[in-house]
Amino acid sequence: MIEIVAYHDHFKDAFKALNQWWIEKYFKMEKMDYQSLDHPKEYILDKGGHILFALLNKEPVGVCALIPTSLQGYDYELAKMGVSPKAQGKGIGLLLGQAILEKAKSSGAKKIYLESSTVLGPAIFLYKKLGFKEVLGIPSPYSRCNIQMELEL
Description:
Layout (H helix, E strand, L loop, with lengths): L1 E5 L5 H15 L4 H8 L1 H4 L6 E7 L2 E10 L7 E8 L8 H15 L4 E6 L4 H9 L3 E3 L11 E6 L1
Parallel strand pairs: 4-5
Antiparallel strand pairs: 1-2, 2-3, 3-4, 5-7, 6-7
């Protein structure tokens, strides 16, 4: 059974681990990764953001964050989404994506953006399934970013 729950301090290590594995598999950790993954409370939650976890048999196997942004026209960035390799293919990414977008709506958000890489084909497919559309011209702090997307809620 998959359960979606909000961040709790005892999930801090899982937040980093679930993201670090995919970042290091395809890219390299960057300064912005360390800031948010090492300090999720200060970097995301204390600024009005949200982090949700997918639990499978009470074990964190997926995570997704909403980070408030000062980027004009957007309320949040959907970020730090990862699903453990042992739990992929079970629809966990879709459940997390739907839950985090509901959280955004209930927080009054009107528009969300995200940054990704086309190397992550399944992620891009998921974002499109959630309704995101490609957008151009937003500066990114990540060298791995080669696609940006937005969603009007």
